[in-house]
């Protein structure tokens, strides 16, 4: 995902490798296809040439779907300034990346002439989240722009509910793939919790993290049908690969 605001082009969690360059995240519960399961869209090179900032929600413990080898190379080669959760600073600097800002959970910092707040994320139901790299989501308040909440890889928690209710984002980004590894419960929101997230969101929702990784079973069509059944379809954008949304 790339966020454009005035002269800022903010790359979020770059997974830039070619189709099938990474290992499967599941080989039992889901078809053991190599990741990513799709190539980057044709517009990717032109868009990446404009990137001048990067936000990383989490990146440790084999989370190459949020920062892969190609993503690291891109950020390192161009010295792109990175903002990340405090616990990821040393991990990123050891890989030669340019960490400009760090932020702790529920901390707000001045960022790009606006403000950035980190919202805690819980990466899974039950015990599985303890083995994951629990990161953060981000609430962006940029000048003359709608406010944006990127929830990140998380289940529906009281922190997420608080962000939706108290911060009242104009746009909320939902990781909607219902990802699940071969052990444990899902590591992203269940379908029921996704519906609650959409109901709680005060305005528009963008659903991402769909149809690009082998452990994410929910398709765009399935999500669209479920939203329609719950009377929520008009509230949610489900963009295709490379699609541009303007607000």
Structure report:
With 247 residues, the chain is α/β, with parallel strands linked by helices. The protein has one domain (2-237): Metallo-beta-lactamase, Chain A (4-Layer Sandwich). The chain is built from six helices and twelve strands. The chain has helices at 44-48, 69-78, 89-94, 158-167, 191-200, 220-229, and strands at 2-5, 8-12, 53-56, 82-85, 99-103, 108-111, 114-120, 136-141, 148-150, 171-175, 204-208, 236-237. The strands form two sheets. Strands 6-7-8-9-10-11-12 form a seven-stranded mixed beta sheet, covered by helices on one side. Strands 1-2-3-4-5 form a five-stranded mixed beta sheet. Helix 6 (220-229) links the parallel strand 11 and strand 12. The longest helix has 10 residues, at 69-78. The model has no long low-confidence stretch (mean pLDDT 95).
Descriptors:
247 residues, five-stranded mixed β-sheet, alpha/beta
Question: Which word captures the global form?
Answer: globular
Radius of gyration from the CA trace?
17 Å
Tally of strands:
12
Number of DSSP helices? 6
Strand order of the largest sheet: 6-7-8-9-10-11-12
Order of helices and strands: EEHEHEHEEEEEHEHEHE
Poorly predicted tracts of residues? none
Number of domains: 1
The CATH class:
Alpha Beta
* CATH superfamily caption: Ribonuclease Z/Hydroxyacylglutathione hydrolase-like
Structural class assignment = alpha/beta
N- to C-terminal separation?
A: 15 Å
CATH level 3 topology: Metallo-beta-lactamase, Chain A
- Share of helix among residues? 10-25%
CATH architecture: 4-Layer Sandwich
Question: How would you state the average pLDDT, rounded?
Answer: 95
Described by strand count, sense and barrel closure, the largest sheet is: 7 strands, mixed
Query: In percent terms, what proportion of residues is strand?
Result: 15-25%
